Amino acid sequence: MAAEFLRQEDLYYADGSVVLLAAHAGKTHAFRVHKSVLGSHSKVFSDMFALPSSAENEKYDGVDSVQMPDDAKDLEDLLRALYYPGTILSMLENRNPLAAIKYKGILLLSQKYFVRVLQKLLRARFRADWPSTLPEWDKLMEHYASLSATALPQHDAASQFIDNRMLEPASAIRLAREANIPEILPAAFYMLSTISPFMDFDALRSSQPPSITDSQGIVLMWQPGERSARWGLLTPDDWLCLARGRHSMMDFARVFEQQEAQCICDSQICIQQNNKKKLLKGHPQDLLRVLKEIGSQQAPPQYPCYNALQALASRSMETRSVLWENLCYYFGLPEADSDDDQNDDDDDGIALVGGELLDG
User: Fold this and answer.
1) At residue 156, does pLDDT exceed 60?
2) How many CB atoms lie under 10 A from the CB of residue 67?
3) pTM
4) Rounded distance, CA 122 to CA 179, Å?
5) How far is 182 from 95, CA to CA, in rounded Å?
């Protein structure tokens, strides 16, 4: 029977005191590890192994065995982090576009088994990835703009996807929902609202991308530099939040356009009027970007629209701040709870030093 189980040699210790069994893709994986090591990092494991071994316990390879309900690959990642802490460094890589997909499993297990150090490090990493202030958002968008500006066409179509180097919002939303990290939801939902729902991350990267048409049957072509998202990861509740957010922001744009006074030039080609109409182009629309462009536009003092443009620029920058501060309201998202035990004090004496996990 032992031969039926797959062993990870670097996580199967001859002197291990327990074998953890877990399934993945229909196959059972066996990890022979030490109760003392697991117990030192997790009170859940400590309590699990507190009872003395007995003849009634399930055995494998001469020691106690435990059938784990977790996915074997996620369990392997967790055990590898505990035995080889240096592997955590790759998980903590700044703004890794694949992090929300690759490390969601290990984060959820670190929370389930209360591996406090790893849990805190990963939660802090995911929080740091997503802007929580408007200046942080602007800095991230400037970085992405520089990536787009330097993108060169490649022979390999997949290499043209500029968002291979950008945060993917749908997977971040899924992570935030399941791991209870509401702080990253506003920025993630806003980013997602600026991406066309016809541009699917995985479909576009398949060997034979499907033909995409809009509601009028017009064929839509992906263009180099265009963003995509993993739309299939969204739940019905996520779609509802997204729809509410887009609707609210279009109402926001209409109110902004209507509140601005008519320019004294009273021209059909008035720059001020044309700037305001940029906000009403339809979905997907990046209102923060458009408002910043309007707020940054310059005109010579002698220009007929100068005073109106100055007033519009000032109001545009003020409106950006209002928009950012109300993203939770527009998308119907929960406010972050500063008293949440799992969210509080993520950096309180926890560090990865010299290849060791330290909990101060």
Assistant:
1) no
2) 12
3) 0.83
4) 11
5) 18
20 strand-pairing partners: 31, 66
Cα angle 196-227-163, degrees, rounded to a multiple of 5: 155
Residue that is written with structure tokens 């507190």 in the block: 50
Q: Is the pLDDT of residue 227 over 60?
A: yes
Of the candidates 86, 79, 69, the one whose C-alpha atom is nearest the C-alpha of residue 10 is 79
Q: How many CB atoms lie within 10 A of CB 20?
A: 25
Which of 28, 46, 68, 121 is CA-nearest to residue 356? 121
Q: Which helix (H) or strand (E) holds 98?
A: none
- In 3D, which of 188, 320, 330 has the Cα closest to residue 246? 330
CB of 32 within 8 A of CB of 19? Answer: yes
For residue 358, the SS3 value is strand
Q: How many CA atoms lie within 13 A of 248 on its CB side?
A: 19
> At a CB cut-off of 8 Å and minimum separation 6, what does 111 contact?
119, 179, 342
CB 270 within 8 A of CB 263: yes
> Residue with structure tokens 């923060």?
288
Q: What is the mean pLDDT of residues 104-113?
A: 95
- Phi, psi (rounded to 5 degrees) for 22: -145, 150
- Distance (Å) of CA 30 to CA 66, 69, 102, 282: 10, 13, 21, 54
DSSP class of 7: E
CA-based R_g, the chain, Å: 26
Give pLDDT tens digits for 10-48. 999 999 999 999 999 899 999 999 999 999 999 999 998
